[in-house]
Amino acid sequence: MVEKHEWGAVAMIESGERSVLGHGISAKPGSARRRPDIYRIYGARRPVIWLVNFLAVLFGVYILIPLYWILLGSMKTNNNVVNSFGFFPALPFFLFENLSRLFTYDNGEFGRWLLNTLFYSLSAGVGGTIFASFAGFAFAKYRFTGRRAIMGLVLAVVAVPATALTIPLYLLYTDLRLTNNPLGIILPGLGTAFGAFLMFVYVRGSVPDSVLDAARVDGASESRVFWRVALPMTLPGAVTVLLFTIVGTWNNYFLPLLIFTKTSLFPLTLGLAGWNSSTSSGYGTHILYALIVTGGLVTMLPTIVLFLALQKYWRQGLTLGSTVG
Amino acid sequence: MLYSIYLSLFATPLIGPRKFVGLQNFINAFSDQSFWSGVERVALFGIIQVPLMLLIALFFAIVFDLELVRRGAGILRLIYFLPYAIPGVISALMWGYLYEPRYSPFDTILTQLGLGNVNFVGGNIVLASIGNIVTWEYVGYNMIILYVVLRSSPRELIDAAVVDGAKLWDIVRYVKIPMARIGLFLTAILSIIGTLQLFTEPEILSSFSTAVNTSYTPNIYIYTVAFTNNNLNYAAALSVLVGVITVVATAVFLGLNRLRQRRAGIS
């Protein structure tokens, strides 16, 4: 059963790869390909198409509702966040006030969390991408004993989403004394099975053996062959692994919740959740509605910007990203 | 995971070293009502939320693949995907504020319309509310996966169907849905696993709702056992059990899938 599932994944990756290289989603609007005339070809009726378009826009509105709410909320005073009507703006305009309070509240702990989050995600992202590239390159281009067995293991791990391993990981950390240690959150990002697999597919698909051999004949060392020849050719794959590892670490909540008890080590997600529970339980000396809302906005902006900026890379990688969960 | 299995076979008393207890932790787990009520809850959640979310995702994947949306399709796809980039904590917080009766703008609208109050975080509705958050977060992500699968399947099949006089619904029914099968299969398995691991959304909502208790989902209960009760060995046993349940659920899904395929093959 499991084998079949893995073959399914492989088949999907093969097809995804084809779309990367061939036609597919990267077709720019207004490109040469003509759009089908849906009315003539499919015999679609106009009311049906109108309904479909209406539903698509309506669903877009549904997705945007919370984002619209948080954008307005970040411009409101504490009192207005909860007392004014959520879908209308309210005066006074408090965005800048909120932002400056956000970074000064409680000796600037939010800034501290922001730096922590940046540090954790960048370390995990950069390290994870390098390791994944090494592994992918080795699987694709070297023949060594146990290669198939290790590949199988990597594939099996790809199928297990990170959350399923969080508690076992925590239990392991308690004995290794890695709780309250930044390594605890960086290490899992370094061993990204999905990344290794994605890089394997990319190296196999886009780095021909002949190019590597030519470089070797010219006297390049193996490490030079890897860094200077292979890696640039697999850049889209590497960027996708980097993006998903950074975002995965940035957005993680469960693992840091388990391993960090010192607030000075918190990432943003954990810090904001803490503010929220102390505000809503009413025990906190400060009621922080406006700061939670503004902090939430600041926390989600970087990952949204990253996804928008790197669109053309992750769109290709997403078929494979499906296995990250 | 292996380490959890190892830990689960021990017990750590308040005083003294860890001692081997065999399967005692598992025997305790089998009669632990708090644990099983959580399992039942996520099972109910999964049976309703996963098919609903995948159906919506499939609908839009086909709509975009057949280019039925003439304007702004690219932007709409990006908007649908956006929630995936947002941390689960922030998503749950936003929806929490939109749900909580004291702040909820939905509540205000309903009251103004004279439709009375709906407590989105009340005892019976909160599970559906969590379902809405999870759907909001992942529907676009699943849609993009299905869309990519459809896009990378051969277009000639559509042309051939059109030549044979197939209409829109025939193409959807006999060309697109079968093509999306491999994608649906994968997204379904990932969603099942994700459902059994449900943690962040209910955990955040527990500060908005009294209905979300400390054993609401299996993972929340394990968290409680590990931190409030300080019983790491029992927590390890429970996490092994969740792993086993996940494997069983996936196997059942695969079995049903195969059964259905076989039946389709005979007829």
Counting copies of identical and different chains, the oligomeric state is: heterodimer
| Shape, principal axes of CA atoms of chain B | globular
- Under CATH, the homologous superfamily of the domain at 98-321 in chain A reads MetI-like
Q: Find the CATH topology of chain B.
A: MetI-like fold
| Uncertain residue ranges of chain B | none
Could you say what the CATH topology of the domain at 98-321 in chain A is called? MetI-like fold
Write a structural description.
- The complex is a heterodimer of chains A (325) and B (267).
- In chain A, helix 10 (209-217) runs antiparallel to helix 11 (222-233).
- Chain A has 16 helices and no strands.
- Chain A has helices at residues 2-21, 38-42, 46-73, 78-83, 95-141, 147-158, 162-176, 183-190, 193-206, 209-217, 222-233, 235-251, 254-259, 268-281, 289-309, 311-321.
- Residues 1-32 and 320-325 of chain A have low confidence and may be disordered.
- By secondary structure, chain A is mostly helical.
- Chain A has a domain at 98-321: MetI-like fold (Orthogonal Bundle), CATH 1.10.3720.10.
- The two termini of chain A are 20 Å apart.
- Chain B is mainly α and 267 residues long.
- Chain B has a single domain, classed as Orthogonal Bundle (MetI-like fold).
- Helix content of chain B is 71%, strand content 1%.
- Chain B has 13 helices and two strands; from the N terminus they run αββαααααααααααα.
- Chain B has a two-stranded antiparallel ribbon.
- Chain B is globular and about 75 Å long.
- Chain B starts with a helix and ends with a helix.
- The interface between A and B is large, with 91 and 85 residues.
